[in-house]
Design brief:
Blueprint (H helix, E strand, L loop, with lengths): L1 E5 L7 E5 L5 E4 L7 H6 L1 H16 L7 E2 L14 E4 L8 E3 L11 E2 L6 H4 L1 E12 L8 H5 L2 E10 L6 E2 L3 E2 L8 E2 L2 E2 L2 E6 L7 E2 L6 H8 L9 E4 L4 E6 L3 E7 L10 E6 L12
Length: about 280
Amino acid sequence: MKLATLHDGSRDGQLAVVSRDLTTAHFASGIATRLQALLDDWNFVSPQLEDLYATLNGGKARHAFPFDPRQCLAPLPRAYGLAVARGGEVPPAVWPSDALGAPHDDVPVPPPGDEAAAAEASCEAMPAAVTAGVAAGAGAEQALDSVRLLLLAAVWGHGAPAAFAPLAVTPDELGTAWRGGRVHLSMHCREAGADAPAVDTTLASPFGRCLAVLARRRRVGAGLIVAVPCGAAVSLRAGQTAWIDARAADGRSVFGHLAQRLVPPPGAPGSPSTP
């Protein structure tokens, strides 16, 4: 199934189920109001959401509405943690994750310093996985069994909040593109309007191994997000937009896309907050 968190004025947003073709959605409020509630009680909640998903795809959901990705927050706005796994066996660093970015958020350039350096920033596109909890000391295969949802992340090199594409999807939505603990998709990461070759996400480390590293000494709680670099990156200057998407073999967008504009810091000339 495909899930999104829609902005409703709260920090955690409102959980919705989204149709496979990304055209319609239906609030999941009668089942679960937040994505974290699904992760905390997966075996009870997910079958109900799957039923709603099937009804929505069949065109029989009575209160369906057009899906607008610009109304989305990150699928899990306040995660248990965010780890970017770099370097194989090196334990990934867990970052604070209280305010994960939405797919169409503006991103400020790096803080003032060297003027030339501050005018640019790098952005990496990464497949990511969300766990339902991993036992301390779990091996790679056991850790992989904890993966419940897959995401598409944008990680900025200067420490801006990581952002996520509109949709969280269950691994079965990928079909054969989910195998060996890896996401096998075509990753697009470029300046909006520019041409750039896609990157094969099979270059990324397998999620099971990364999660096992995190769980070596302590249990990992439900709602941890692990992102793995795959070599898809772009360097931007202020005013340019990072356009990120992950596509299946048939060309369809799996998670919806991100479009994040790099803007001057708040208060600087040309920034959105400057009159």
